[in-house]
Amino acid sequence: MINVNQNGASVQTGTSGVIGQMATYDHEQILFCQDQATGLKAIVAIHNTTLGPSLGGTRMWQYATEAEALTDVLRLSRGMTYKSSLAGLNLGGGKAVIIGDSRTQKNEALFRRFGKFINSLGGKYITAEDVGIGTRDMEWVRMETKHVAGLPEYLGGSGDPSPVTAYGVYMGMKAAANQRWGNDSLVGKKVAVQGVGNVGQYLIEHLVKEGAHVTITDIFQDRVQALVAKHGVTAVAPEAIYDVDMDIYAPCALGATVNDDTLNRLKCSIIAGAANNQLANEQVHGQAVMDRGILYAPDYLVNAGGIINCYWEVIGYNRDAAMRQAQDIYNTTLTIFKKSIDESMPTYLAANRMAESRIEAMAKVKSTF
Ligand code: NAD
Questions:
Q1: Domain shared by 270 and 338, yes or no
Q2: Among 104, 93, 103, 125, CA closest to 114
């Protein structure tokens, strides 16, 4: 099979063998890490470093097979390339997975050994926290390599990225409101927020402050009740969130909540939230939301505040600059909507094309020296 990579070149693709899988989306490099003494089994995937060093978190998960771990790390690292490109960052896409049980198999030796492997890449890959990884684990990784971002403040890092992420989501939501209703005011708009964890709780603050009518849900009732008491928002049971009377659906919990089932229930005008991979199937449901007249603000565009915060940590932390760049998500979202209309394509595709075209353009800059 022949495909076209993000630099516009023809690439041979196929799924037979590891190099065949790498060729499918033109990954640059994979590092397989194995260490019997510590029990470490990890894979680091570097998708594309045209824009800069690859950055993306490490996930610890009990994959059923090594093939499943490889597929996940290839998919996630590619996603990071797109996210950083669209956010205008000088970062490439990378990701790591550690195969194992994050509840029982964590220890200092394992993470320090992993840190040595990261260090061997010489800065071509910068890691951070992801699912199954905590601050303590990253402290151990940091003992062996400086190529770590998203660290707590006491370790010289930028701390919790969630407020920056929430601000970016809020900006993307306001841009969507502008596109849909002719101005970006959310006063009186009904917003349903699914998941009130790190990002969701900060997003609610912005929404309530502006005067939106907010309905929330979460599987942790204590979290919900605390926010109801603090902000006077309405709460519903987790399964009921898709059926509430809403203008905007803001998924801030899990991925794949925009699917065949929920699309028959969601009576919203806009989807804009923090969760990654909101569309269960990008092609199918990206087109379906458009056909139903729902304006979808692409997830990896509006939730880029986290990676923006990491980027500023890498180049020298400046909170104001990170917030300003998160604010710019507003303009980028409007640009994506315009491209979607002008070229009659779903918004997710317009975002992908814009991310690819920046990489293509910057590849030319690099080729001059
Ligand atoms: P979190 O774990 O702090 O919060 C998620 C919340 O969703 C939790 O309170 C959880 O109980 C709730 N939840 C889980 N399943 C649910 C369900 N079925 N119904 C209702 N609530 C449910 O995570 P977070 O850091 O706030 O991130 C939220 C989403 O945004 C995730 O998908 C994450 O990948 C994405 N994201 C986060 C950041 C960041 O800076 N934290 C950056 C980019 C993307």
A1: yes
A2: 125
